[in-house]
Each structure stands twice: as C-alpha cells, then as structure tokens.
Specification:
Elements lengths: L3 E4 L2 E4 L4 E7 L8 E7 L6 E6 L6 E3 L7 E6 L4 E6 L8 E8 L15 E2 L3 E6 L1
Parallel strand pairs: 2-11
Antiparallel strand pairs: 1-3, 3-8, 4-5, 4-9, 5-6, 7-8, 9-10, 9-11
Length: 126
C-alpha cells in the first residue's frame, strides 16, 4: 500500500504560478509511475500530467502544455507539479496518483492508477 499526500494548493491570481507537491511513503517510490489529475467544479476528473519511474519521460494534457511541468525526486519520495500562467479554468481539486504497473506509454486514465491522494484545492481568481 502506498500513501500519497498532496500539499501546496491555494489561491492564486490568473497569470500567476503555483507549485503543488505529492509526497509518498514507502520504499518503492522509484517503482511508481506518478500522475496528476484534477477535478474542476462540476466536472469529471481529468488527466493533467504523468511522469515515468526514472523521471525520463513525461506526458502532459494538451490544455496545460507549455504552462505546467511535472518532475520528481526519487531520493525525497516526492513528485511536483509546477503550474505557470494559471488560468481561471485551472481551478480544481488536484490529485496525485500512482501505479506500480509499468507501461511503455504513460497512462492517462483514472483506472490506470491504484493509489490516490486526498487532493489539494487550487483556485485561480481574476
């Protein structure tokens, strides 16, 4: 079992930046593919970004490409999401997710991840 805890959410003005963090317990963090999802108000949860075990491969949703960056530090058991040029539409609860299942292509579906954090709220204001 893997416990994931997100931190760093908050209120930010449109155009601003925010970095959110995912901390994992356990000794197998470097065996986990990690992803970020988000649930905007009144909408379904959607894929945001994913990063491979080594950090060598990343995948970003089209809506955040060029603005968001996913990274990880396996020595610290953390994965971060740097969000720049934030837009009102980025307002959501952001979830960290992870899976032990390796895939040649980084997965973007909720069902592909068996471990989930509790979420952290990111609110972008005008």
């Amino acid at each position: 079992q893997v416990q994931l805890v997100e931190t760093g959410g908050g209120l930010v003005q449109a155009g601003g930046s925010l970095r959110i963090y995912c901390a994992a317990d356990g000794r197998t963090f470097n065996k986990l593919t990690v992803a970020w999802f988000r649930r905007p108000p009144g909408k379904d949860r959607e894929f945001v970004a994913a990063i491979s075990r080594s950090g060598g491969r990343t995948s970003l949703a089209d809506s955040v490409k060029g603005r968001f960056t996913i990274s990880r530090d396996n020595a610290e058991n953390t994965a971060d999401l740097q969000m720049n040029s934030l837009e009102l539409e980025d307002t959501a609860v952001y979830y960290c997710a992870a899976t032990h299942t390796w895939s040649a292509v980084l997965r973007t579906g909720e069902k592909d991840y068996e471990y989930w954090g509790q979420g952290t709220q990111v609110t972008v204001s005008s």
